[in-house]
Specification:
alpha/beta, five-stranded parallel beta sheet, two-stranded antiparallel ribbon, elongated
């Protein structure tokens, strides 16, 4: 089949987190290291926020309430610096995505809350993608094949005409199960070589 589109993961491909904001927030509020991860990402509400049951705001309000309930009102000062850390962007990947858009439909598929759409604006990524899908939007998370099929349908592209890249093997397997042409993302240079192998010229 002719390749008509490219669908890519966000975190680990276009954006990277070093958790420095979380560490600053915990230090500011005198919280033990790892506290925010336990009260935010390890809590069941995070899974609900990623599949559209809760909004990003509802989830973060819950995180603050849980921290304050355990550590007292002073713990609330951790919320702002934690949320302010939106990661760092791989600019070369954005340049490649913009080049791809001249001949292909380009999308992002991420297991994330509805806040990703605001992050796209914050990071000046709006011209890099034709479509931005979160698991919150689709009501299903990767690696369920349904997540990829819903994204492909909304892009108007048959699964076999869509190339998918992710830095997690399980998510690549899920995409292949859905019929996409999926490969493991191992770095920008390898991505360029893969595109060239598929007859797509980018620099």
């Amino acid at each position: 089949m002719t390749l008509r589109g490219v669908l890519l993961d966000m975190n680990g491909v276009f954006r990277h987190f070093d958790h420095s904001g979380q560490a600053r927030a915990e230090a500011l509020a005198s919280l033990p290291p790892g506290t925010i991860a336990r009260y935010a990402y390890d809590h069941p509400d995070y899974e609900l926020a990623k599949v559209g049951v809760l909004t990003h705001q509802e989830w973060t309000v819950g995180v603050e309430a849980r921290l304050v309930a355990t550590y007292g009102p002073a713990a609330a000062v951790a919320i702002e610096p934690w949320l302010d850390d939106r990661g760092t962007v791989e600019r070369r990947m954005l340049d490649i995505a913009r080049q791809l858009r001249t001949s292909l439909t380009v999308g992002v598929l991420s297991n994330f809350t509805d806040e990703l759409h605001a992050d796209i604006v914050r990071h000046d990524m709006t011209d890099a993608f034709d479509h931005v899908f979160t698991s919150h939007d689709l009501w299903v998370q990767k690696p369920s094949p349904l997540a990829y099929l819903r994204a492909a349908e909304r892009m108007g592209i048959e699964p076999g005409e869509l190339l998918y890249l992710d830095d997690q093997r399980a998510f690549v397997q899920g995409a292949r199960k859905a019929g996409l042409r999926a490969e493991l993302f191992t770095g920008v240079n390898d991505f360029v070589l893969l595109l060239h192998a598929n007859g797509i010229a980018v620099s």
